[in-house]
Design brief:
heterodimer; A: four-stranded antiparallel sheet; 5 strands; B: alpha/beta; 2-enoyl-CoA Hydratase, Chain A, domain 1; 8 strands; 20% strand; globular; Ribonuclease (chain A)
Chain lengths: 75, 247
């Protein structure tokens, strides 16, 4: 594991307790997105993982949008 | 949605999704393919933050993940509707193995590729920037070239030094092979003193990256798209020529 980066090592790996985060990759409307789950029944879109520029213009997957968790059960 | 022309949008979408999914499984043996709409012949790959490889980085790091990027490049190579790829870099570097893997994948892609360095394309971002057929750098963008180190501490053990030297050679070889910069001048930048506070190395900005031969041209998204379209039509012409010969 060798890093070649301008970021100082201590900034990449800080000495603090890691926060619990729940990020998942899912397909939503045929678009691969990363979502965050903070408990509850909604998922929040964090980022779009597609290379198709058209996907970034779709309102339904704009980062920050919430999508109901139950919709995922049908996929 | 109150668009009268799309009364059954949800249903249509559902149907469309299933049929394209089946098609993909049949054609490509995979479901995770960049989706196509009619008008995007050019796909865009963004390399941002840390390039993440063998180790998952703590969540406060913005990362470009190996397992996302590599399958996307494979899908772009396989999808006949995609004609070219624009790579946008704004990265601080990251894992050597993952960075070189992405660079090699881009270099061996049969479709035209153009890269733009915006903001920064540092460290392992350098080989990725030069891996494309043609590269641009924004006038204000910078690229930091510095030696590979473990933690920023002084390297004390000869074996460690040799190992890092070997890793460094891989980067140097790739960059000199895929751009016009010579090994001599690249190493000179890498080991220059008095340029960076924490380390030895050089920070090259826009024009400088072009004048040393590392990047092809200074420019932004407009120039890059124009170039990519040129490369695509040249590529089509070439392919057409080959088919003509076969017949």
């Amino acid at each position: 594991m060798t890093f070649y980066t301008i970021m100082p090592h201590e900034q990449i790996h800080p000495h603090r307790h890691e926060e619990l985060t729940n990020y998942f990759e899912i397909m939503y409307n045929g678009i691969p997105v990363m979502v965050e789950h903070n408990g509850g029944t909604m998922l929040r879109i964090d980022r779009i993982l597609s290379t198709d520029p058209a996907h970034f213009l779709q309102e339904s997957v704009q980062p920050g949008q919430s999508i109901p968790l139950f919709e995922m059960l049908n996929n | 949605m109150d668009n009268p022309s799309l009364p059954n949008e949800g249903e249509e979408r559902e149907e469309g999704k299933n049929s394209t999914l089946m098609e993909k499984i049949q054609q490509l043996g995979t479901t995770n393919v960049p989706q196509m709409s009619q008008d995007s012949k050019i796909h865009c790959l963004t390399i941002i933050g840390q390039i993440e490889g063998h180790m998952q980085l703590p969540p406060q790091n913005k990362t470009t993940k190996y397992e996302h990027v590599i399958p996307q490049i494979v899908a772009i190579e396989q999808n006949p509707n995609i004609e070219g790829l624009l790579v946008i870099l704004n990265t601080v570097g990251g894992d050597v193995e993952a960075g070189l893997a992405i660079a090699e994948m881009l270099a061996s892609l049969s479709k035209p590729t153009v890269s733009i360095v915006l903001g920064g394309g540092h460290s392992i971002g350098v080989p990725i920037a030069v891996s494309c057929d043609y590269s641009y750098i924004a006038e204000t963008a910078t690229m930091t070239i510095h030696p590979i180190r473990l933690t920023g501490l002084v390297i004390g053990v000869p074996q460690t030094f040799e190992y890092l030297d070997k890793m460094q050679e891989r980067v140097i070889n790739f960059v000199t092979k895929h751009s016009k910069v010579t090994e001599e001048s690249f190493k000179e930048l890498m080991f220059a003193k008095g340029n960076l506070t924490r380390d030895i190395g050089t920070n090259v900005v826009g024009n400088e990256a072009v004048s040393i031969g590392m990047i092809n041209e200074v420019g932004g998204v407009g120039q890059a798209m124009k170039k990519l379209n040129e490369l695509i039509s040249a590529n089509k012409h070439e392919l057409g020529g080959e088919e003509g010969l076969l017949q």
